[in-house]
Amino acid sequence: MTSAKRYVPWWRRLESGVEFHSLLKRGFGALRTELFDASLCYDTKVMKQLSLIFLSIFAAEIGDKTQLATMLFATDKGLGKLGVFLAAAGALVASTLLAVVAGDLVSRVISASTLKMIAGSGFILVGIWTLISATQ
C-alpha cells in the first residue's frame, strides 16, 4: 500500500530549509507558479476557514480608525491616490505580519483554547467598559 504524498506549503519547506537550495536552483519563478497553480488549491475545509478569516477581518476594518485615517490622507491633493493606497496597504500588511508572527510565538507557550478564552474575555471587558463609559 502506497501512502499519498502530502502537500507541504512552500513557506513550511523554506522554514525547515528543505527546499531553500532547490528554490534558489530552480529560481523564484517556480515559487510564483506554486503560489498561483490552481491544482495546489487548499481543500474545502481550509478554504472555508480562510474565507471566514478574510470576512472577519474585512468586516472589523470597515469604518475603523485605519480606514478613516486613510480617507483623510486621500483627501490631500498633494498626494497621489495610488501612493496613499500603497502606503496604507503596506502598513496593513506589515501590521498583519507582526500579528501572525506574534500569534505563532504566543501559541508555542499558551494553548489555543487558553488564548481564545483570554481574547474572548478581553473583548467582553472592552464591551463592558464601552457600555459603562457611554452612560457617564
Salient structural properties:
mainly alpha; 7 helices; 74% helix; 0% strand
Could you please describe the fold and organization of this structure?
This protein has 136 residues and is an all-alpha fold. It folds into 2 domains: 1-41, no CATH class; 44-134. 74% of the residues lie in helices and 0% in strands. It contains 7 helices and no strands. The chain starts with 9 loop residues before the first helix and ends with a helix.
Provide the residue-averaged pLDDT.
Answer: 77
The span between the termini is 70 Å
Query: What share of the residues does DSSP label as strand, in percent?
Result: under 5%
Order of helices and strands: HHHHHHH
Q: Show unreliable segments.
A: none
Q: In one word, what is the shape?
A: extended
* Strand-pairing-aware structural class: mainly alpha
Rg, Cα atoms, Å: 21 Å
How many beta-strand runs? Answer: 0
Which bin fits the share of residues in helices?
over 70%
Number of continuous helical runs = 7
Number of domains: 2
| Biggest sheet statistics | none
Secondary-structure blueprint of this entry?
Layout (H helix, E strand, L loop, with lengths): L9 H7 L3 H7 L1 H9 L7 H18 L3 H10 L6 H27 L4 H23 L2
Kindly summarize this structure in a few lines.
This protein is mostly helical and 136 residues long. 74% of the residues lie in helices and 0% in strands.
